[in-house]
Design goal:
The chain has 2 helices and 8 strands; from the N terminus they run βαββββαβββ. It has 149 residues and is of the alpha/beta class.
């Protein structure tokens, strides 16, 4: 059996990199301290914390198609942070930037100690940031799938 070692990167298709770049620059580089790998008119890519996030513009024929969580494809992505305070700090930074929040930091039932916030990028792509103490559900999954929430 192969053992996965996390997700190396995620690539998001946005309507226009020029319009989305300020949001992702604030989130990834300024707030989360990720290093900028590529930054030009077609691609913005940051790496840090064993994670890469890249945004690329949609093809011209798709730039007017809105993001929809219920369509096939990405529902949202979630960044794991190191503390509840980091979740609160990220929330404050993105709130001050003017991000649209689905919910402020709160505890959730997904795992013991689950503490997260959920917000949207300029195209409505949802981004969650979470802190889970210890290994969260990672130890529990060894015994088989968890019951649905």
């Amino acid at each position: 059996m192969i053992s996965a070692n996390g997700i190396a990167h995620i690539q998001l298709t946005v309507r226009d990199v020029t319009n989305s770049r300020p949001f992702y620059h604030r989130l990834l580089h300024e707030t989360l301290g990720m290093g900028i790998q590529y930054d030009h008119s077609e691609v913005f890519y940051c790496i840090g914390g064993r994670t890469g996030v890249l945004i690329r513009s949609a093809a011209p024929e798709h730039r007017d198609t809105p993001f929809d969580q219920q369509r096939i494809g990405l529902h949202h992505f979630c960044l794991r942070l190191r503390s509840r305070e980091d979740v609160d700090a990220l929330h404050a930074s993105m709130r001050d930037f003017g991000a649209t929040f689905v919910r402020p930091p709160e505890e959730g039932a997904w795992a013991p100690g689950y503490y997260s916030t959920l917000f949207e990028d300029p195209d409505g792509i949802r981004i969650e940031a979470v802190f889970i103490p210890g290994s969260g559900n990672l130890d529990r999954i060894k015994d088989g799938p968890l019951a649905p929430i």
